[in-house]
Amino acid sequence: MDKHKKHIVILGAGESGAGAALLAQQQEYDVFVSDGGPIAAAFVRELEENNIRYEQGGHTEALVLKADEVVKSPGIPEKASIMKKIREAGIPVISEIELAYRFAKGKKIIAITGSNGKTTTTALTYDIFKKAGLNAACVGNIGNSFARQVALAPADYYIVEISSFQLDDIQQFRPEVAVLLNITPDHLDRYDHKMEQYAAAKLRIVENQGPEDYFIYCLDDPGINQYLKNLPVQSKILPFTTMEPLKEGGFIANKELNLRVGEEEDLVVSIYDLALQGRHNLYNSMAAGIAARTMDIRNEHIRASLTSFRSLEHRLEYVASVRGIDFINDSKATNINSVWFALESMHQPVVLIMGGIDKGNDYSIIAGLVKEKVKAIVCLGKDNHLIHDALAQHVPVIVNTESMHDAVHASFFLSQKGDVVLLSPACSSFDLFKNYEDRGRQFKQEVHAL
């Protein structure tokens, strides 16, 4: 350890931690990476190739507590014993996005958060910037970590998908454009099951903004309205809504999407021409379009993207039609509100595959849509009793499975021509799968094998 260098400890060595380690090493910090579990082989190789010291399978307290500063990966909860020791020692803790921000000064940052829709909105915003010919990078919870991108391939514009966990540990992070799509219950197990704590984390996205920055948010979202009214916002506010025309922002009128921002004339697009359909995607499209307009991107580039963008893998992704039954992969739906949005956009009878590790879901939120649209629920997980307790009375058939093979075959058996089988779990995947991507890919493999 070099006594003259600032000693930084990276807790966790996934994409976020490995990216932070690369950037910290590049900026001549003395870096040590500590992961309580096993580190993926690709990240081990990367750390070793860059001569970054690391440990895996546990934390050596004597080494961690020597840190001048700790970068905490978003998956590590505050209740972890090593975090309690770090807090007791008074060592400053930051998130990977805070570290990346330090070395992205002078660049434009468009930060997007929300309980639902942020991945789609981030990808759509990035698509607009690329169509406009700008040097942009899509980072954060989607693609490379923000820190990795800053270290290895700096861009002029960073479109950053940010979770509440990442916002928990910011200090100076200040995006030129902050987008808040919605605030609905999610990850409440990490916030003492208190909605106000979770909402406060989401709203930190605007806390360092000034009058020259922009805050884009959904005017229709009751969660945002409830918690925003007590927050002094310094930035220029650009709301979006489906309810009424606005003087500035985004709105739906006469079945047309309208964007009214800055000097350029309004952008007007028929909602039927939008590439992303469904009410939730009207919000995502407006948010992305407004963000682009704040950066003076011309209407023609925004229109081209809004009308041609292809949706993401694992987010309401059409997989195949087998004997007239459509299969939809929405594995990224890891909370109950995502499932609500998915069901709301379905127009055929649904066989719903759901389940996994429950994060404190209130399943009553989807009870009305289940009663209206779902003919059968196929539970996929090791413990499905909460789903049974909440929804069994609203659906004719509910069955249990413990593998993707069984879930897909049960769904196929329960369906008929004209139905849709929707994988929209509402839960984390870690009881049976590596992550939501693994769950979605296994779903697609089983569907193609039918």
From TrEMBL:
Q: According to the UniProt entry, where is the signal peptide? A: none
Q: Which Gene3D superfamilies match?
A: Mur ligase, C-terminal domain, Mur-like, catalytic domain, NAD(P)-binding Rossmann-like Domain
Q: Subcellular location, in the record's words?
A: Cytoplasm
| Start and end residues of each Mur ligase central domain | 112-291
Q: Which Pfam families match?
A: Mur_ligase_C, Mur_ligase_M, MurD_N
The principal localisation class reads: cytoplasm
Q: Does the keyword Nucleotide-binding apply?
A: yes
- Please indicate if the UniProt record lists ATP-binding as a keyword: yes
Q: Indicate the segments forming the Mur ligase C-terminal domain, all copies.
A: 314-427
| InterPro entries to which the protein is assigned, alphabetical | Mur-like_cat_sf, Mur_ligase_C, Mur_ligase_C_dom_sf, Mur_ligase_cen, MurD
Q: Which SUPFAM superfamilies does the record match to this protein? A: MurCD N-terminal domain, MurD-like peptide ligases, catalytic domain, MurD-like peptide ligases, peptide-binding domain
Keyword field = ATP-binding, Cell cycle, Cell division, Cell shape, Cell wall biogenesis/degradation, Cytoplasm, Ligase, Nucleotide-binding, Peptidoglycan synthesis
EC number, as in UniProt: 6.3.2.9
Which NCBIfam families does the record associate with it?
murD
Q: What does this protein do?
A: Cell wall formation. Catalyzes the addition of glutamate to the nucleotide precursor UDP-N-acetylmuramoyl-L-alanine (UMA).
Say which family it is in: Belongs to the MurCDEF family.
Name-wise, this protein is UDP-N-acetylmuramoylalanine--D-glutamate ligase
Name the source organism: Compostibacter hankyongensis
Gene name in the database record: murD
